[in-house]
Amino acid sequence: MQIVNAKNKMSIYFYIFWCYNLCMEKIKLVKGDITKLSVDAIVNAANKRLLGGGGVDGAIHRAAGRELLAECKTLGGCNTGEAKITGAYNLPCKYVIHTVGPIFCDGAKGQDKQLADCYKNSLLLADKHDVKTIAFSAISTGVYGYPIYDACKIAYQTIKNVLPLTKVEQVLFVCFNDVVFDAFTQAMGKMPY
Q1: What is the spatial distance between Cα 70 and Cα 60, in angstroms, rounded to a whole number?
Q2: Is the dihedral of CA 165, 171, 177, 178 positive or negative?
Q3: Is residue 17 part of a domain?
């Protein structure tokens, strides 16, 4: 039996407060174009074939150039919730991490876990490649139909929980429009920097 005295309890609260503040300093919300960011890695909301498409995926492929598509063809696709990494070619970042989000149906088919896995696996893969700064878009909220607020809440909670397990120094949630920006602001429960 473990006895928790006031001193131990205070230490636990201090640690939780410290972790929360540390994460809040490391997680930022910005409005802009993810293909223009000079970070170590950007995360592409890809399709299973990794061959480019619409939305963020198409914008990243267009900005990176043909070499990105050529490298993606060698990867053999990607399953939902998993992540794979490539060079960034003509983009200002070093790497593109490709992850495949779930197509939203009714939320009852494990889609929340699959979406959380996108963020977790992307962040862990980034850490393996010594990435210090990484930018995410709102995965699965475009044509895959995930409700924006729910997706932003899952994204934020997952990053907040996984980030302390890595050496990644900064995570940016990049919002292309006001709707996503407002959803992330609400999900994070604060005003962005």
Answers
A1: 14
A2: positive
A3: no
94: exposed, middle or buried (C-beta count within 10 Å: 0-12, 13-18, 19+)?
middle
Q: Is residue 68 part of a domain?
A: yes
Q: What is the CATH number of the domain that holds 150?
A: 3.40.220.10
pTM of the predicted structure, to 2 decimals: 0.86
Backbone angles phi, psi at 80, to 5 degrees: -55, 130
CA–CA dist 70, 181 (Å, integer): 33
Token digits for 168?
Answer: 């990644």
SS (H, E, C) 59-128: HHHHHHCHHHHHHHHCCCCCCECCEEEEECCCCCCCEEEEEECCCCCCCCCCHHHHHHHHHHHHHHHHHH
Record the tokens describing residue 96, joined without a space: 């593109």
Question: Could you report the per-residue pLDDT of 129-187, keeping only the tens digit for each?
Answer: 999 999 999 999 999 999 999 999 999 999 999 999 999 999 999 999 999 999 999 99
Query: Which tokens in the block code for residue 141?
Result: 């909220």
Amino acid at the residue 184: F
